[in-house]
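Feature request, filed as a ticket because there's no other form

It would be nice if the structure record came with a short human-readable summary line next to the tokens. Right now we just get the raw output. Example of a typical job, pasted below so the devs can see what we mean:
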Amino acid sequence: MRRPGRRLAVLAAALLATLTAAAGPSAASAADPAAARPAGAGLREVLFVGNNWEGTADVLASSGGLEKVGRINVIPDKEERLREIRLNPVKLGYFLGIRATAGEGHDQFVDDMYTTPDGTAVVVSRPSFADVVSIDLATGRINWRFPVSGYRADHMAVSPDGTRVAVSASTSNTVHVLDIATGRPAGSFGTGDKPHENVYTDGGRYLWNMSIGDVTSALDAPWLDWTKGDRRITVVDAQTMRQVKVIDMRQRLDAFGRSDLSDAVRPVAFSPDGSTMYFQVSFFNGVVEYDVSADRITRVRRLPANPATSSDRTTWVNDSRHHGMSMSPDGTKLCVAGTMDDYATVVDRTSLLEGPLVPASKPYWATVSGDGRSCVISESGADRVTAIDFATGRATASVPVGDHPQRVRLGHVPAGWSGPAA
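Raw output as currently delivered:
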């Protein structure tokens, strides 16, 4: 569903006016463990853009002008999966439910993506098909498929050494950890309601999961917050899957004097040394700062609201006022996607003051370019990906992609790759 946008034309014009050429040598970004691994011989670093409603992934240059490298179909088995779903009334019910709620009237064919260390395959979570698949980049065929428990797959994370991938199974409150080469289960653990973001920390020693509760109901009034379910952060030992810690942000927010904020932790960004975590919560246009060792919230910063954004919280997609955040490799800047406010901005980490508000149509994610100079956002409302310079806060490149881009991840493909062979 496209948001009506008399203002979008104005915003798009303003964006185009800010674009300038940008290019630089490729360098791995410390902000993304997948990017921290240097590409091997014969590999090229790229950005994978998951076009959620279309079932494709556009592959772009990882830095500079974000030139298109190729495209891959992530649902080559679509008809087979649909036959299975139609023959199972329960699966069909969830499939249609995803379309009507989280999918905004569309099927959700790709959520997250990571490439294997050797650059031969991309591993994709597919919400509407409730699975994770590995797709051969040379042939476009499926190497392996792992059906998650329950009926929906969501966010993933790759271990720093690139050998394991963790995926949230939304409806079963479970995170599965898989061998990235074979798809075989390496373990799993339980979470709060609706597991969402996954992040490896401490060099891969720990795995964090943030559960966000029910974000598809219309019970969005603050006094109905209790209906959203059990929302918490679960931290486990990444090798044994044993629970190390549970963090209830409700208690921390209340202690900080912000009982008005939801405790549904959305995208997060850790400082380079892992001492500080920044996160977004449902219904809030801003950033929360959390001291990991002291286990307490230290600052909350509300960011500008777009005057044209509806005050009706039930119109905000999946409860996400702002959804998407990344940190510059040197740890000095945050990039924030103001999803329902139609902008993105670079925030100074010391002052938590925002830079220029870069017009963007329903930006849904933020990552770091391969050279570390830019934040790259997906504009799901305009089917574009846009780079914003961390130093200036200005847009430097914007390129068209497929229908409803969401997750953007750094990865590697073979040198000279331009898509699977016909």
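Something like this underneath would help us a lot:
Confidence is low (pLDDT under 50) at residues 1-31, 33-38.
Helices lie at 6-18, 33-36, 78-86, 89-100, 249-256.
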